[in-house]
Amino acid sequence: MSALSELGEFIREQRRNAQISLRQLAQQTGVSNPYLSQIERGLRRPSAEVLQQIGNALRISTPVMYLRAGLLEAKESGGVVSAIAADDELTERQKHLLLEIYDSFRRENTEHSPGADRAGHLVEES
Amino acid sequence: MSALSELGEFIREQRRNAQISLRQLAQQTGVSNPYLSQIERGLRRPSAEVLQQIGNALRISTPVMYLRAGLLEAKESGGVVSAIAADDELTERQKHLLLEIYDSFRRENTEHSPGADRAGHLVEES
DNA sequence: GCAGAGCGCTTGCAAAAGTTAGCACCCCTG
DNA sequence: CAGGGGTGCTAACTTTTGCAAGCGCTCTGC
How many whole angstroms separate alpha carbon B43 and alpha carbon A72? Predict the structure, then answer.
């Protein structure tokens, strides 16, 4: 399975998940519906602009979209932690909270009983 | 001045700064030198792949490159967003949530009355 | 039954992206 | 001065992107 058709399936999945038809998505994105069809079936490689529009309409963040398309290299683990630490727009307290949430998410995924723990309480106090 | 030629001049500037000729950069990036020339003079719009290669050769981080090219919104300027996107330990949903929290934090900081908005509701529903 | 509107898909076609070949202009070095 | 190797740029070509038009299908209302 090529990375191209993986991307296509991901997009199709997200679109179906959002209960949107090809033509509706086409209208929202400004991309033609035949082209969207081809993208979803993995026989065309959309440009970054188109990807941006699709992600925008489907509420998927652009970097996530680019990552799926192989346009953004997957960074080494710890990237999130250091990126948060280096951010100059967050307060120290916010960084701390964000990191705790990040950790709790990762813990969720490695748990045997998934979905049991929730991160809601972590944002209770700003 | 179009955003296209701005990008071109930026690349040229970075290349000159690194003391690299067009052909050398072409070889390093795997892109032909005439095309690089056209990119630098702002009369061609490089794809994200090419941009990635250029940034890679010139030691410019990919998100910064995309940002310069207008392929990434300024609001998701940094490392945090792309780092989250690239993380392979989080589910898509978790990434989305984390990004929303991150955004809400930054919004808090730029508001006139800080602390008014809370991010708690963002984690309410899985 | 049969318009009409929705769905996704196929087919050519225009416009970009990108390449190979070759131009003109230097700066050396024999 | 011939020449080779460096620079960046131009021209013609191939490949890919993205779209308009139209296909066949299904469902609904008249």
Answer: 25
- Based on the fold, state whether residues B58 and B80 are members of the same structural domain: no
In chain A, which among 47-106 make CB contacts under 8 A with chain B? Answer: 47-49, 52, 59-64, 66-67, 69, 71-75, 77, 79-80, 82-84, 86-87, 89-91, 94, 97-98, 101-102, 105-106
Do both B83 and B33 map to the same domain? no
Quote the DSSP letter at residue A122: G
Please spell the DSSP secondary structure of B1-16, one letter per residue: --HHHHHHHHHHHHHH
State pLDDT tens for residues B105-124. Answer: 888 877 654 444 444 444 44
The 10s digit of each residue's pLDDT in B17-51 is 999 999 999 999 999 999 999 999 999 999 999 99
**Strand D protein footprint, C-beta under 7 A:** A 30-32, 34-35, 38, 44-47, 49-50; B 21-24, 33-34, 37-38, 40-41
Range of the domain at A86: 79-123
